[in-house]
Amino acid sequence: MEVLQAQMEELRVQLETLRIGETHRGQSKDVSLVAGIKEWTGESKGRSVYEFLTQIETLAKVSGWTSHDKAFIVKAKLQGLALQFLNGREELGRDGCSYEVLRQALIERFSDKLPDQYYYTRLQDAVQGKNESAEEFSDRCRKMCQRTIRKVNDEGTQRIINEEAERRLLAAYVHGLRGIVGQQVQFQMPSTMEQAVRLAVTVENVEKHKQLTEGVKKVFTARSDVECFRCGKRGHYARDCRQETPSMTSGRRSWRDQSSRRRDPPSRDLLLTRGGRGRVGSGRQSFRGPARPWGPPEDTLSSGIQCFHCNEFGHRRRDCPKFSRAAQHPNGQGSTSRSPASNQQ
């Protein structure tokens, strides 16, 4: 680990020595864009080796970097598996290693080992995802198509290969679009990939706006078809109805009558009829509720219940109309009259 850290420190020092100036060719050199290059680990989940090297080559054209400068920048940006591979190859870690040699070694080690036919088949079977937009689907198809293009040295041959790949990409993209968007694009028959993507995005936006408008109309239509169970009118539910029914009005009136009746104090006769449950003459009167008229229940007439006060059947002493609390002992512990059972004893 110490050796690796020393090598990394040396590369950083060498990278810092690069400065803006005039090279031997008379071209200005700028290293300020090096900070915008992200470190590359060589893992399969991250960027591919082609994307990493393409970024460096593009910035090299803008900044005027030489082949020697690009090699130093590549070595300074390697991390993880890529750095381990570089340290395992002594010829690549030397200062005199050119960028072309380093580039070829990285491509052979970290490039995809799958054949071009694999990506060609995947491109033909590509289908737009359920939540994937037309632009995202075009980017995915283009990325797969790039891996099907063969690289040759002749510029004319390479141009023909790229044109064939572009037509293959257009056919796969139009065939993979789903729903109404795919039908409209296939009907228009675009000649280029840019026209197909522009048409697909336009139809997709129109469909989204149409679905949003129809959704709002369905909500208002559903409310207009609803019938209230309280008033019988349409356009609202019974829980939102503001019309009062006769039952609600009578119920509110009966509740008010009961509440006002409960607030009235009971009379002396009512208290005596209820068995003297309140204290008359004191500052406060306690009662449990309005008095009800006395009357023996019909089922008690033949039940054999006998009153201990008047010796009549059908009621008890506490419900006897001839019994008065005033006849009780002054201390309130009992009545002066005795029941027949006590007289017999």
UniProtKB/TrEMBL annotation:
Keyword Zinc in annotation: yes
Compositional bias ranges of the Polar residues kind: 330-345
Pfam families: zf-CCHC
Keywords associated with the record: Metal-binding, Zinc, Zinc-finger
SUPFAM superfamilies xref list: Retrovirus zinc finger-like domains
Basic and acidic residues bias: start-end ranges: 254-267
Entries under InterPro entries matching the protein: Znf_CCHC, Znf_CCHC_sf
Metal-binding among keywords: yes
Stretches assigned to the CCHC-type domain: 228-243, 307-322
Domain of life (superkingdom): Eukaryota
Region (Disordered): 242-299, 321-345
GO molecular function terms listed in the Swiss-Prot or TrEMBL record: nucleic acid binding; zinc ion binding
PANTHER family in the record: CCHC-TYPE DOMAIN-CONTAINING PROTEIN
Name of the protein: CCHC-type domain-containing protein
Organism per entry: Cryptotermes secundus
